[in-house]
Amino acid sequence: MSDDETAAVPLTPDFYQYLAAPIDRVEQDAQGLWIFWPDALRLRCHRFWLRENTMGHGGIDPATREGLMDPAELSDAMQMTSCDLTEAGDLQILWAPDGVRSRYHSGWLRHIAEGQHRPQSWVPEPLLWTAASLPQPPRRNARAVLNDNRALSDMLNDLLARGVCVVEQAPCEPGFLNRLAARIGPVRDSNFGPLWDVKADVKLAGDAKTNTTANTGFRLGPHTDLPTREIPPGFQFLHCLINEADGGESTLTDGAALIEELKTTRPDDYEILSTRRWIFFNRGPGIDHRFSAPIIDLLGGEGVPTIRAFYPVRAFPDMADEDVGPAYAALRRFYQLADDPRFELTFRLGPGDIMCFDNRRILHGRKAFSGSGQRHLQGIYIDRDEVLSTARAVNRARATLTDVA
Ligand SMILES: [Fe+2]
How far apart are alpha carbons 145 and 275 in whole angstroms? Predict the structure, then answer.
């Protein structure tokens, strides 16, 4: 008999703690069973899934909480000899042919019935915005985000719902972004390095030493970074260390709102932008990143599409010749819309501000500089998986009043 079989509360296949949700009854059939709760919520479970999720006995490893069962080991002989409920209302199954007895925590089963195991659970839905509905990005205090999981949860929820948040009053120390990243997840490296500088000095405009338009005094129209990658970086964090330059205001546009506008008012443009491909190309000595994809890239998934919109690296049309003219026309209108004051926020980043945004949804830009002066930002990328993982953990801990493991 394993420890789990004698424990008052069954272990679960994860590290969360569950409140009891006593099961009302179960109905067994040849392939599995139905679980019913008193409020009529129910859950269908296949017998193989139940056997895989047995704690121990070749099912879930109690140490790692990962599954140990190679699907090749699944056998038609694995049958439920009996299934019933414990006094606490947990599910209990006796298995043939090996006589294993499994218990399944009622609260763990209930969280599946409620859909809390799905990727979109514990994170907010995207909330589309325009300049009218979001005149300024939400702001959160840097010290609070570093020290308090509630503040971190608020900030990550801003990022996932609105796609943008300014973390303010951060120390103007180079490398501070690594401390912020330590709260969220691993930094994503690129050919610009894990932590990169954006130094705009009007005197630099046209200087051949820089390898990106970002490091010049030119205007940078609304764009997203690194469309040259199969999956562009999920989130971008730009820390303002110095901003003494005249002009150079930051801009943000919600690409998800642009897509909705296009679908409503310009469905032909949406069709072209989401199906016709361009080849994006990072040029540099020893560097040859390329990817071919539409400007509005569904990436084969659900949710907000990825906007590939960095015109400095959009190199070649990858479509039938007769589509190129209409694709340019749609592109022109798309960029005009992205720069339209109805959709575009304009604000000035001050020293200590960290502009955080969804790099695959939000288009960011910079107005031209109107006078002399220094502006120094540092940036990092963190992928969407990391932001989502931490958001789920802190949101779930907050909702259930437990600490994050
Ligand atoms: Fe950028």
Answer: 40
Q: How far is the CA of 212 from the centre of ligand 1 (A)?
A: 9
pLDDT at 218: 78
Decide yes or no: CATH 3.30.2020.30 for domain 3-117: yes
Give me the residue spans of the domains in the chain.
Answer: 3-117, 139-398
Instruction: Flag whether pLDDT at 201 surpasses 80.
Output: no
With cut-offs at 50, 70 and 90, classify the pLDDT of residue 99: very high
Q: Is the pLDDT of residue 300 over 90?
A: no
If you average pLDDT over residues 123-130, what whole number do you get?
97
pLDDT at position 6 is: 58
Tell me the whole-structure pTM to 2 decimals.
0.90
- Span from the CA of 294 to the centroid of ligand 1 (angstroms): 19
DSSP character at residue 90: -
Which of these CATH numbers, 3.30.530.20, 3.60.130.10, 1.25.40.10, 3.90.226.10, describes 139-398? 3.60.130.10
Tokens of 353: 């501000």
Calculate how far, in angstroms, residue 317's C-alpha sits from the geometric centre of ligand 1: 22
CA–centroid distance, 348 to ligand 1, in Å, is 16
Sorted by sequence, the CB contacts under 8 Å of residue 14 that are 6+ apart come out as: 65, 108
Q: Angle at Cα 127 formed by Cα 123 and Cα 131, nearest 5°?
A: 145
Starting from the edge strand earliest in sequence, which strands make up the sheet with 250-254, in order? 220-223, 362-366, 250-254, 344-347
The residue whose two tokens read 């546009």 is: 253
Ligand 1 center–CA 328 separation, angstroms: 22
pLDDT score at 209: 57
DSSP letters for 235-265: EEEEEEEEE-SSB--EEEEEHHHHHHHHHHH
Tell me the one-letter amino acid at 93.
Answer: I
What is the number of helices (H) and of strands (E) in the chain? 10, 22
- CA of 168 relative to ligand 1 center, distance in Å: 20
